[in-house]
Amino acid sequence: MSHLELQDIQSIIASGCGNLKAAAYVLLHIQDAPLARQWLSNLVDRVQTSQDPPSDLCLNIAFTYEGLTTLGLHQSTLSTFPTEFKEGMTEANRSRILGDHEDSENDPKLWVWGGTNPQQTRVHILLLLYATDDEQLDEFCTTLVDQLPKGGVEFILKLDTLTLKDEAGRFREHFGFQDGISQPIIEGLNRVGSPDNTIKAGEFILGYTNEYNLLTESPRVKPDLDPHNILPSGEFGFHDLGRNGSYLVFRHLSQKVEEFWRFLEEVTQNPDGSSNPEERLKLAAKMVGRWPSGTSLVQSPDRDDPNVIDKNDFAYHHVDAQGFRCPFGAHIRRSNPRDSLDPAPGTERSIAINKTHRLLRRGRTYGEPISPSFDPEAILNNPNPGERGIHFICINANINRQFEFIQHTWVNNPKFNGLYEETDPLVGDRHPGKMGKTDIFTIPGKPIRKRIKNLPQFVVVRGGAYFLLPGIKAIRYLASISE
User: Fold this and answer.
1) Cα separations (Å) of 294 from 178, 377, 413, 453?
2) What gap in Å lies between CA 63 and CA 302, rounded to an integer?
3) d(Cα 150, Cα 61) in Å, to the nearest integer?
4) Which helix (H) or strand (E) is 464 found in, with range?
5) Of 181, 215, 311, 356, which residue is 20 to 30 A from 158 by alpha carbon distance?
6) Residues forming beta bridges with residue 460, ordered by sequence position
7) Angstrom distances, CA of residue 428 to CA of 97, 114, 255, 303, 422
8) Would you say 238 and 222 are in contact if contact means Cβ atoms under 8 Å apart?
9) pLDDT digit string (tens) for 431-465?
10) Residue-wise pLDDT tens digits, 274-317
11) What's the pTM?
């Protein structure tokens, strides 16, 4: 196990800044590369590292491929980036596998940022800002934005967030379920836990051994392009631009909260048309794979049990091989199948495969909740048309093998785990493609299964991009580039 160089790793990798209540994401465009490099040189000392947890303010920074190109990174270096990063999230084939189909609600030409509308300003830089409260965050953001014109950088958009908590202090997302439970533990950081959930650092941080006992591909710089030896030495005599960095995936996801609970209300009504709140909640839990408290259906299949201490301490195969507790197609079973993967479900081989497709989630919710109680009855009786959702952010060292694989092979695969005609019931793609309709959700049962049909699209993509999250030395190198 290699010692992690925390002083060179941006803080968002080690921590989601959960102690800092306020957060915002600022999108920028480079107008003048020389001025932007000088601006970056002045900014780099303010970037928070993973060495010490942020106490009041935190700034991290990431770049799109187009941003690195505009900044002046040499073509010989740009060519060493992986294809998915170079092509970006909205390339035609990538859009297809992500479920962002043309003429659908997720069509990138409809996005508010990062999409294919030629009238939109191209995103080059992402600033991730955190503070103890909104007032401090606004002051922090204003200070940084005021410096942009002199730095040759244009402000595009500020994406606000709103931390949601219930009365017990648990983090919630807008559908009403506890959030941020199933996070992998990075080997070598300060947290320890189950070996099944402890992932080698190279799955999230470039320059370290991954779950294949290899180094994940990292962008490289020719030695003569780094005359001051700012970057660490890499393989084959190159300097390593990627070491201590990672790739950041950003998806701006709008949640149709009222539509979600309205649909569940309609399909669970009693024969006389009256409401059945118990069945409504149970179906919601079946679709998510957890109860609102975060307790897994594997741990408590018949009712919500908030008293379960470790809500992440469960596996599927030996307890629920047939999916009678947690359906095969449930959101959490698709996005993290744990020990249920072929070729040997319930074994170390299955867990080992799962470890190569994990994500480190670092996003936050945005928008006012329909009801602060998150009670479905209150949501249904107090409609609020405002927009709300999740700024989904994840960290991974290999976008194709991690984020894109999960999205395409697990979340949006109509034939996941032996199923047919269905995608993830919560966030899945409902656009009919070559496979036909994908708006069904199957609940295994004895003696017969139950199928919920005509699921609408509950989550819509409003923006997104792939970013490089460089190490501190790499940021200094980008600031030092000379034309």
Assistant:
1) 5, 19, 25, 26
2) 46
3) 18
4) strand 459-469
5) 181
6) 254
7) 12, 21, 12, 25, 8
8) yes
9) 766 556 789 999 999 889 999 999 999 999 999 99
10) 999 999 999 999 999 999 999 999 999 999 999 999 999 999 99
11) 0.96
